[in-house]
Write a structure and sequence with these properties.
With 123 residues, the chain is mostly beta strands. The protein is built from no helices and eleven strands. The mean pLDDT is 94. The strands form two sheets. Strands 2, 4, 5, 6, 9, 10 and 11 form a seven-stranded mixed β-sheet that branches.
Length: 123
């Protein structure tokens, strides 16, 4: 099993950057595919980005060109660097892990989840 803890959220202005962290414990993060999802108030949880071994990455259209998912094996942590933030990026951001293959864009593909971190982008 793996435990995931997100951090790095906060209140920022339009155009600012944030780096979210997903710290893993219990198993090394490089044995899992890691995904980032977000959920805005009143909306369904949606895919943002994912990274699987050995390094293939996937991004939602809304994240392409602005967000980057990366991994630090020494720190056992996955990051989501978010640049040029917009008000529509406001949401609770979750990281998730899966040992199995499948559609990394889908919530059902992941069996471990963190508790989430709030990101608020103010205009």
């Amino acid at each position: 099993q793996v435990q995931l803890v997100e951090s790095g959220g906060g209140l920022v202005q339009v155009g600012d950057s944030l780096r979210l962290s997903c710290a893993a414990s219990g198993r090394t993060v490089n044995t899992y595919a890691i995904g980032w999802f977000r959920q805005a108030p009143g909306k369904e949880r949606e895919f943002v980005a994912a990274r699987r071994n050995p390094g293939t990455t996937y991004y939602a259209d809304s994240a392409k060109g602005r967000f980057t998912i990366s991994r630090d094996n020494v720190k056992n942590t996955v990051y989501l660097q978010m640049n040029s933030l917009k008000p529509e990026d406001t949401a609770v951001y979750f990281c998730a892990a899966t040992q199995w293959g499948g559609n990394y864009f889908q919530i059902a593909s992941y069996n471990y989840w963190g508790q989430g971190t709030q990101v608020t982008v103010s205009s």
